[in-house]
Amino acid sequence: MLLLILSMFPAVERSVLYLEEKVVTTIDGQTTHQYSRSVYLGKQRVRIDFPDSGQRLIYNMDLKTLYVIDLAKKRYFLARPNTFKERSSRKPLYWIAEHVDNRLERGGPILRKTGRSAQIEGYTCYEYEVTAIKDQPVKTTIWATRYLKLMDRGQIKADKKSIRQVWMAALGIEPPLDVKQVIRKIFDELEGLPIRTVSTIMHDDIPITTTSTIVGIERAVFDDKFFSIPPNFQIIRPKDDIEDRPWSDNDRP
After folding, report:
1. By C-alpha distance, which of 57, 37, 46 is closest to 17?
2. 3-class secondary structure, 76
3. Domain boundary assignment for the chain
4. Of the candidates 164, 170, 196, the residue with the CA atom closest to the CA atom of residue 183
5. With contact defined as beta carbons under 8 Å apart, do 19 and 39 qualify?
6. In CATH, what is the architecture of 12-84+91-251?
7. 158-197 confidence digits (pLDDT tens)
8. What's the pTM?
9. Could you read off the pLDDT of 203-225 as tens digits, one per residue?
């Protein structure tokens, strides 16, 4: 009855921050893998579409609930912090902080501004090097454009909190507090919006580089259903899920 009553009201349209991102991996200078993803940042949820694979992710803004959606097979999987027996939430940090007594050591500055600039996707960007750890196995640079310049183009009034939330979503479900603090520190030190991130690791003296570039930024308007599971999609129960957890269509967002 409640669903019937709710269906009588029109969906509310809301402004959404939209990012189009391109990711390219190269080995010794040769492109081996590339894909794109579309990120939609709403008021209560983050939606990430992978057009090449037909997969969609929907996060609650608190990062405690994740819906993994297979658009081709019309099914989805619901993950929560204790869905899996083991987690490796610290792996995506790419060695940007030391571990001391099983905690991330957040000592001095994480970033160093190199003074170099470049035009990337029409923006004047400034380069930052991640320098948190000496002799780190991964070399990471971030190219950021200043917020004032971005707003002058009339495309978006973005703030650090919005873009930081996208980075948080990439870390997985409910990242540990110390991980969140490292990400916050990066954004505190950045003087603007990160447009390109380049990470290189050496393997047998061969460079493996992953480059992530935001190729589109704008505001879009969608209704609330845009962040919901499509109708008639079936939920999947994982084999290693906790036995006493109820799973049903009630878990549909």
Report:
1. 46
2. strand
3. 12-84+91-251
4. 164
5. yes
6. Clam (2.50)
7. 567 777 877 877 776 777 766 777 788 888 888 888 899 9
8. 0.74
9. 888 999 999 999 988 877 888 78
